[in-house]
Specification:
This protein is of the alpha+beta class and 690 residues long. The chain has 4 domains: 278 residues, no CATH class; 77 residues, no CATH class; 99 residues, no CATH class; 31 residues. Helix content is 47%, strand content 16%. It has 24 helices and 18 strands. The strands form 3 sheets. Strands 1, 7, 8, 9, 10, 11, 12, 13 and 14 form a 9-stranded mixed beta sheet that branches. The protein has a 5-stranded antiparallel beta sheet with strand order 2-6-5-4-3, with helices on one face. A hairpin with a 4-residue loop joins strand 10 and strand 11. Helix 4 crosses helix 5 and helix 16 crosses helix 17. Keywords: Metal-binding, Nucleus, Zinc, Zinc-finger.
Length: 690
Amino acid sequence: MKPSNNIWIRRQQCPCGDWKCYIKYEGDDRMTVSSQMVKNETTAMMSANEAVFTPYVGQIFKSDDDAFDDYSNFARKNGFSIRKARSTESQNLGIYRRDFVCYRSGFNQPRKKANVEHPRDRKSVRCGCDAKMYLTKEIVDGVTQWYVSQFSNVHNHELLEDDQVRLLPAYRKIHEADQERILLLCKAGFPVNQIVKVLELEKGVQPGQLPFIEKDVRNFVRTCKKTVQENDALLSDKRDNDTVELIEVCKGMAERDADFAYDYTTDQSEKLENIAWSYGDSVRAYSLFGDVVTFDTTYRSITYGLLLGLWFGMDNHGKSILFGCVLLQDESSQSFGWALQTFVRFMRGRCPQTVLTDIDPSLRDAMARELPNTNHVISIWHILSKLPSWFSWPIGSQYVDFRAEFDILCHLENIEDFEQQWNHLVSRFGLVSDKHISLLFSSRQCWSLSYIKRYFVACTMTAEFLQSTDAFLKRILSGQTCLQVFFEQVSVAASFQNQTTDTIPYLPIKTCMPIEEHARTILTPYSFSLLQHEMVLSMQYGMQEMADGSYLVQHFKKLDGEYLVFWIVEDEQVHCSCKEFERTGVLCRHAIRVLVMKNCFQLPEKYFPFRWRQECTLVATGDQNARSYSDECAQDFHSVAATLLTESMLCKQRFDYVHRELSRVLEDVKSMPVTQEFSLNMANNHVSES
């Protein structure tokens, strides 16, 4: 057994609390390897059925191993297995003869009965079957090869069917990935019969369809028991030593950095239970972007028996930033409660507006108890990733329809509509008594859009932010062997001094509306791109003034519903029933449409939240003159490109010439190196010269 270099794995235990229920994640190494092995085995069986031929005398093989594999495939296809029998060796040639025979060849020799009161009387499967394949080695032109000297396919016993032959000992194998899983479950106290059930559920196979049987698992566990006990002793020592070292590292960090904060708890034996820490940069970042926090508990450590929790935020460039880290001994409500208390204390007592988590009843209870005034949102991405594990097996071929209806359900904005459609969904697919449906419904106030649309979540529920946090996790969790290395990697990732600022992108004006030009001078490129997208779409909406002074806004093709917008001129306030601004801090297309039609040439200052502004920054972005110079260059380029397009469209000869030359220039430009420092220096020189 080769130990893994990485101490972190995804949490697989289902939040429903049933020990038999595990979650399969796409891209998870363990599940991918296991599934691939099952797939390879199935492919091999299909290949054997299609491409295996009957051996014959004179058939030549490059090696005796190739011959054995070929004969074994033939045997499996025909309902029996083989074993290696006699081999003959000479001083000059070495082994020059190999005998492969049917597994029921020969007879067992009588054994001396053991001196016990009730000796076991085992019946032998050997019955003198004469099926065989004999090989002889020869050297032709200096090349060694093996040829079939004798072959017989005459059996004196019944051959097995396909569903029976796989149970023969020769074809029952426990792959390495399954061995690791078996030892892990055994260590957790699972009996062998339950281990087999767990593996069947994880692989999605019917009972009895694994490539091994319960007896094989029992024998494997018995064989490894001594090794496991020795490894447990070594692992216990490693766990104790590494946790002590982690505490010492935190103490040393606190002495060097007054802003570094940490706390931990110990059990009655003075062994580490929980530990959490945060950095000075993280606290400063929280003061700007701590309105929305993502508490990620995706990973845990088998080596140390600890759950990893990471607090993330989103900056005004749409990137993930680390607020803090915690290691917990278990996933109980008490442990989560301690983690939340400690995090708020690290952040100088400031509670976030919203916390996003995975679906977990214990964490939900801890949130309600420790942060009663904070909005708790369960990320829809965590729910969607679990749906295949929860429902693909119970409802089978109907899962595609179920998933489509569930997606529609997630986007319903009215609570009454949600409740009605939920009952219809549960009834249609026969999930009234399903435990996972019950878990989802009991947590609906934390994930359904109809309940959470008024909660501020910034843009943390987008696919882009999910990818950003995944990339962050891979960066700090890859290739680790101990907690000290993990702490060092987290420290590097959390420091803003180690972060590089991307070149400020040029975002051209798309609508020519004054409010767009004004917004570009205030917002970061990321937040401006979000608002600009809404501005572009706003032009596809029409509005109608209602009797109460509100405005009914709807897409001209009626692609979505109707939305009510209220514009209060005296207070410069605009409110839309879609609640997009309340949810993300970005004004919606419906409100923008009304403001434009009311001759509003600049958005009110209150609709530029500070967290999305350019001046709200943690990392120096360099000379701002670089941006103005970039704008000038872009405008000059657009002017030249527009003239070139006009001239090239006058005749086909001009168009072909321009297209050919531009293609060549584009390839040359792509091959040129990009130097950020050079571009900034050019900007500074341009400013100084002017």
